[in-house]
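We emphasize that the prediction below concerns an isolated chain of 133 residues; any contacts that depend on oligomerization or on bound cofactors are therefore not represented. The input was used exactly as deposited, without trimming of termini.
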Amino acid sequence: MDLDLLFRALSDPTRRRLVDELAERDGQTLFELHVRLITWHGASLSRQALSKHLQMLEEAGLVRTEWQWRSKHHFLDRAPIRQAWTLWLGRHAGHDRAEPIEESAVTLRGPRTARPPRRDGVKDRDNKRRDLR
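Result of the prediction step, given as a C-alpha cell string:
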C-alpha cells in the first residue's frame, strides 16, 4: 500500500466529499455523484473534472468501479483507510496497532446540515413537494 498516494488522494476537499458521499450511499454513478455534489455542497465542477477526481481515488484504492448494464457504479473501499490507520495513523493518535478502529476515531467533517428549502416548487430528494410560503 502506498501511503503517499492515499494521502495525496485525500488531500483534496472535493475527493474527501466524494468519499463522504460514497460512505453515505455506495454504488452511485458519475451523474448521481455530480448532482449530489452540486446540490448538497454547491460544488461547481464539470463531470469531466469529477471523473478525474474519481480516477485519483481509484488509483489510491479507495474507490472500485463496477459496470452494471450501461452504467458505471462507484463503490467505496475502506481497506486502504484501515491499513493507513494500522500502519501509521494509529500510533500517532496514541492508539496501539492491535486496537480496533472506532467509528468515532477520526471525523473528516461535521454532521451534514439540512438543505435549505427549495423555493421553485421542485420536488426534493424524498419526492415530496415543499411549501412555497
